[in-house]
Design goal:
It is a single chain. By secondary structure, this protein is of the alpha/beta class. It has helices at residues 3-15, 18-25, 29-43, 59-86, 100-103, 106-115, 129-137, 200-212, 226-234, 280-297; strands at residues 48-51, 54-57, 94-98, 122-126, 143-147, 159-174, 194-197, 218-222, 239-243, 254-257, 264-272. It is built from ten helices and eleven strands. α1 crosses α3, α1 (3-15) packs across α4 (59-86) and α6 packs across α10 (280-297).
Length: 301
């Protein structure tokens, strides 16, 4: 069937008028009427009925219109995909996931580098590492940038995992803190401080680090997310452990200080083993560049 006729019929149903559809499509009313009549003849059923103020679809017309909308949407997507390929894009949207700290820094930077050489539509979904892994395995995400902070990552034959590097955690202090602006700080100098945490993975890294130094870490405040944790620090209620890759993206009223023998977490890129996105390899290269720059800024060395 000619999709032009389908578009005409959908317009008639949406506008409830043959004349209004004709005006919108730049056709004559008689041409629109002939197209609808021809469609009815081909399908062997009445699709619209006339009333005093125009037309309305019959039950069969409503059903056909619903399916026609799906077909026309897919046809439009096919045209856009071909044009993307023509214009140098992959023709397929790139779905990227990242943990909150990585979504706030290296991932947008890497995507910016990708877009310098490729025209591709993309989306970014923040989430926890385990959730993002499951979405890659299910085929919902093309790339996920995650960490192996506790409880760690699972091995999965459906998912390819590549290490970007190790990220040193840093401590974030309010601007007026006695240790703000110092060099590397021993966690023992922070004994007695109140810590804020927003997730169990970061809390586990903090406890492990403090235990190795022979001191405790009093996690006295819980935050819903990373911005909430930083807000508690900025207002002087607590100090916090955050990823080093985030150091350059911190708010202006806190300061990041490197730790002696800091806890680390591996940063990994996940991609599906089956049908990888054509841009995944290029994005990985850009992620390597962005991670090296951020890790250096965070004091990893």
């Amino acid at each position: 069937m000619d999709l032009t006729v389908w578009r005409t019929f959908v317009s008639v149903c949406r506008l409830g008028s043959l004349s209004a559809a004709a005006a919108e499509l730049h056709h004559t009313q008689s041409a629109v009427s002939r197209q609808v009549a021809g469609l009815e003849q081909r399908l062997g059923v009445v699709l619209v009925e006339r009333h005093a103020r125009g037309v309305r679809p019959t039950a069969a017309g409503e059903m056909f219109c619903r399916h026609a909308l799906v077909v026309l949407d897919e046809a439009d997507r096919a045209v856009r995909a071909v044009r993307d390929v023509r214009d140098g894009g992959s023709g397929r949207p790139l779905a990227v996931g990242a943990t909150p700290s990585l979504a706030a820094g290296i991932v947008p930077e890497a995507i910016g580098g990708l877009l310098e050489s490729r025209a591709v539509r993309w989306s970014l979904l923040p989430g926890l590492s385990a959730q993002l892994h499951d979405r890659v395995a299910a085929g919902d995400l093309d790339v996920a940038v995650v960490t192996d902070a506790p409880p760690g990552l699972v091995r999965d034959v459906r998912v390819e995992r590549r290490l970007l590097g190790l990220d040193e955690m840093v401590v974030v202090l309010p601007l007026g803190h006695r240790l703000a602006g110092r060099g590397r700080v021993d966690v023992r100098a922070l004994a007695g401080e109140v810590w804020a945490e927003d997730n169990e993975g970061s809390a586990a890294l903090l406890r492990q680090h403090a235990d190795r130094a022979g001191v405790g870490a009093r996690i006295g405040l819980a935050a819903a997310d990373l911005p909430g944790k930083l807000a508690l620090v900025a207002t002087g209620h607590a100090i916090a452990l955050v990823p080093g890759v985030l150091a350059r993206a911190l708010r202006a009223d806190v300061v990041a200080v490197a730790l002696v023998d800091p806890p680390t977490r591996g940063v990994h890129v996940l991609t599906p083993c089956r049908d990888p996105h054509p841009c995944a390899g290029v994005l990985f290269d850009r992620l390597v560049e962005a991670f090296r720059g951020r890790a250096g800024a965070g004091g990893q060395g």
